[in-house]
Amino acid sequence: EVQLVESGGGLVQPGGSLRLSCVASGFSFSNYAMSWVRLAPGKGLEWVSSLSGGGSTTYHTDSLKGRFTISRDNSKNTLYLQMNSLRAEDTALYYCAKGGDDYIWGSYRPFDYWGQGTLVTVSS
Amino acid sequence: DIQMTQSPSSLSASVGDRVTVTCRASQSISNYLNWFQQKPGKAPKLLISATSTLQSGVPSRFSGRRSGTGFTDFTFTISSLQPEDFATYYCQQSYSVPFTFGGGTKVE
Predict the structure, then answer these.
(1) What stretches in chain A show pLDDT beneath 50?
(2) A45, A51, A70: best to mutate for the B interface, most B CBs within 10 A
């Protein structure tokens, strides 16, 4: 059974940093692309970033590029999201999602399983 | 960026009703269209990928198709609404990065 467990969220002041983690189990982690997707209060789902299975290819939504960095440690079955210079509009529930393939662009199913999410609140 | 316009944003339905949601892409996305279900406090669940492929374990009352002659208009249908189907549904295109979602349809 695929399981994705996020952690690392919390309350942070504007301008601060957080690192989210997602521990995966139930599948061969290094063989699949992974992504972060967020859900802000009162808004819809927003894709944040994706990383190929081997970690060689990354994509970010342009508005977040430079502040957020996705990475993975395949030896620990863990996906990360380093978030810097946080703003109030980054307040959201952040989900980790498994892809259906090793690659990202061209995949029919970039998000086939999701974790329960970790809440990030940016406020002074 | 490809914009995904989903309608309606909410609908009221009863058990047994046929429910239809539409999703329009701002440009052709071939059949790279997925549908998700999200219940309050739960993770999104992939129901349909590649426009019409039902995921394993998903009931057959859920279906998706392309509507019209182009590759921009898509339809999601619940043939007979069940109590456990009250949720928010999202379309999402995986044709190109940035991946984008529709605004959601709340079925209540």
Answers:
(1) none
(2) A45
